[in-house]
Amino acid sequence: MPDATPAATRVAAVVYNPIKVDVDLLKTIVATESSAAGWGESLFFETTVEDVGQEATKEALAAGVDLVLAAGGDGTVRAVTEALRGSGVTLALLPSGTGNLLARNLDLTLNDLEHSVHTAFTGTNRPIDLGVIDIERQGGTRDRHVFVVMAGMGIDAKMIQNTDDDLKAKAGWAAYVRAIVTSLRDPNELHLRFRKDDGPVVREKANTLIIGNCGSLPANILLMPDAVVDDGSLDLLVMRPGGVLGWLRIWTKVAWVNGVVRRTKLGRTLVGEHRNDHELEYSTVKKFTARLSRPEEIELDGDAFGRATAFNAWVEPSALDVRVPA
Q1: Which terms does the record give in the GO molecular function aspect (predicted)?
Q2: Domains delineated in the chain
Q3: In 57-215, where do the E strands start and end?
Q4: What is the Cα gyration radius of the chain?
Q5: Taking all residues of the chain, what is their mean pLDDT, rounded to a whole number?
């Protein structure tokens, strides 16, 4: 629903990554669109290496803003969202990164800054779910974070850890290809005990474990075909490839069957629903708890988050309003 607050009293904040955006152009477009919508003068908060967005967003909230525009990559969006959790303040996305994962899953415009800013000031609010995760570190310390797209262990976390940031800045999504090859050479499996919702504790060996709030990735990859950003659930994906051929079968199912065939009505009719097998298994949960046999790399929304010995993840339904076109 549209914000009912009188426009003249509303103020927006822009939390931006100066490496990802043309700051002068951004300020010009925001000033034009906010004025046209009758809003007050917008506030601007810059992220830094030390603060990727949480503290900047907290400053914006302390200033009493009604809307926060996140201008940056997936890391900026995740950090802003983490600070917005529980505030009741709406998020608007100005996609400016390589992946733009949340924007993709909401079918928002990716390469039109004017349209994105216009949507921020004239659009409507769409409630989406948030994933929340408590990560336990070696030594017993814990830290809590939010994810809007997915959290993962295994090849995806190793891939992100192995990605060259300089190459990523120059080559974009293609930079992950080299990292994937490096990660596939790692023979180590995840050994864990986990619990879905209030079910029994299960022992598992897997190559990759992903908990998703939504499932579309760049390059037309539909990693989790049934994941919906506002269904009140998290989707769980477990991969157990049997060597190189196993990875090829998984890639065919994810990139071709999910990413191409199932995107059409005819394709869905022909292939039907995904049937779980030993290599690729999907399920849904409200909460998921796991403990690892050794510290493992973990990623949230495409950013490395160090090593975890255990974690507890859950969904908070409709916990965040995101501005979408009216």
Answers
A1: ATP binding; kinase activity
A2: 12-122 (3.40.50.10330), 131-317 (2.60.200.40)
A3: 67-72, 90-95, 124-136, 142-147, 150-153, 190-196, 202-206, 208-212
A4: 20
A5: 87
